[in-house]
Amino acid sequence: MDMWQAEKPQRSERVSLNKVRIQDDFWNYYINLVRDVVVPYQWEVLNDRMDGADPSGAVRNFRIAAGLEQGDFYGFVFQDTDVAKWLEAVSYMLEADRNPELEEIADQMIDIIGQAQQEDGYLDTYFIVKEPDKRWTNLTECHELYVAGHMIEAGVAYYRATGKRKLLDIVCRFADYIDTVFGTEPGKLAGYDGHQEIELALVKLYEVTQNERYLRLGRYFLDQRGQQPFFFEQELKKRNGKSFWSGFEEHVDLTYHQSHLPVRQQEKAAGHAVRLMYMLTGMADVAALTGDKSLFDACLKLWDNIVTKQMYITGGVGSTSHGEAFSFDYDLPNDTVYAETCASIGLIFFAHRMLKITPESKYADVMERALYNTVVGGMARDGKHFFYVNPLEVDPKACGGGNHKFDHVKPVRREWFGCACCPPNVARLLSSLGEYIYTVQDQTIYTHLYIGGEAELKVGGGTVALKQTTDYPWDGRIAIEVTPQSRQTDFTLALRLPDWCSDAELRVNGEPCPLDNRVMKNGYITVHRNWNARDIVELRLEMPVVRVHSHPLVRGNIGKVALQRGPFVYCLEQADNGENLHELVLPKTAELTARRVDGQLGSIMTIQAEALRLDEKKWNDALYSTAELPPMEQMTATFIPYYAWANRGEGEMTVWVREQQ
């Protein structure tokens, strides 16, 4: 039966982080890095105690708003979200593993937030401290509901982790107040925020409180966006054209805010990439909880446009620095790309919500692609340096070299940012990684990501323990030990067959199982049986090095190839191959050899290939010449996983390489 024939589709419940324990060589490095380095480091930055990092002012703003200090607001109008996302990351860590010392620090911050909250429930330190008479007068630019959304997410996460209601009660008061302000009823403001976030946050608040008021409010913000007359244009007129950022402006770029059309009528990804991803996440949530098929259909259309026409091979989205935005179909330049880390995190949020509604491997494939490439690549191995922008081709000479179209591209990660949305976003995603491995729907446990560890899941009216053992992502062998709580439990275990894998083998308790149409369902290998304690499912995924080509309409990649092995996209880096990487050519017949190496980048799989290189030293001094090009010289090219680049100093990098026919 089609899931939308019922009043509401069945939707997977959240997997609690205290029911999943990751024990995985690859991911434990980053999870421990977040716990031991990133979160403490960010707390010091948020308190302005870190030399060399851009000032934050985020904690001090709350102290000023609470009356605990005197001073002026510092930072961006949305500076509060840095604290909120830090608290959310801390919450996920506490849910997985209680830490009394860290919990005490969080409790003290929550006390300050409570003191800063106004009597009517309002909570935004910029408008409390700096412009108390300007509330809700510039939703287009000033992020008030975006700030509210992130604080709501923190409140929900902290309650789930600790059972403490203080921050949850704070955000409920704030949401109740927001509900009195916004709506289509007489006397209310028929508006919505310029930066989507409140929509998905209100769904989370509904899920823990079961208060329908919050779900209705989240749906209102989606339904109202893009309706005519356009709210942002009316708002600008009321402000007499005054702009928060530029002084004055004549019109609002509605497409930038995804408010040019009602959300159900939008068919192409457009505008600010992070905003669209957050909006789609909220749309998928509301569609599932309300049974709104038209909203879900809009999610499908936009998903298809993104992943088939506007997504980088690394899972990056948003190709232009102008507006940090999508541009047009197949416009995917490698050197001027934006591909904000937060946008890929938003893409993971969206993909995960789609998986919870309809478990199809295409969503998990994209989730994995963004996770293993752009997101983990957004943070250095030291946990103290971050990428905001994730290019696929870099020449350090171009960055800051006078050509301003490259000004946003950095050849090395930075310690912090004045607009520091990406570092805490990476922290909150990696600290909640346990949520993304499995979902349960009907009588089926779906395995979306192959990450070693143990999980305890409820299926078929009982509890099942899973123990996943693997050296993934370097090796394609996965073993899952299944132990039902009762002696025999009847359910289905579904294992994702990744889109990069052309051959796989499955064994159950040592017996081979054919992978035919009877067991394949929506990209998952399904194993249905009465399970006994310590049944073993073994999956072997062939993991060859493959050459990937772009659609012919991606102009910058014509005649070029990228290498991929397993979930990893690979790149050339100057540290291994010297400068002027554009001179390299990969013959079509070149053998590609994967080799495990240990070193500065950790234990990784590199790829070696016999390549050709133009020697520019044999070129004459003329800028142009009718002479033939110098002969190509043989060399051994070394490719490393894209996520690992820029950990060995400044240098060139490229993902796409010219291919010789």
Commentary on this structure:
- GO terms for molecular function: hydrolase activity.
- Pfam families: Beta-AFase-like_GH127_cat, Glyco_hydro127C, Glyco_hydro127M.
- The chain is of the alpha+beta class and 661 residues long.
- The chain folds into 4 domains: 1-53 and 267-436, no CATH class; 54-247, no CATH class; 440-541, Golgi alpha-mannosidase II (Immunoglobulin-like); 548-660, no CATH class.
- The protein is built from 17 helices and 26 strands.
- The strands form 5 sheets. It has a 7-stranded antiparallel β-sheet, with no helix packed on it. A 6-stranded mixed beta barrel has the order 19-20-24-23-21-26.
- A hairpin with a 6-residue loop joins strand 10 (462-470) and strand 11.
- It starts with 19 loop residues before the first strand and ends with a strand.
Keywords:
661 residues, alpha+beta, Immunoglobulin-like, 4 domains, seven-stranded antiparallel sheet, six-stranded mixed barrel, 17 helices, 26 strands, globular
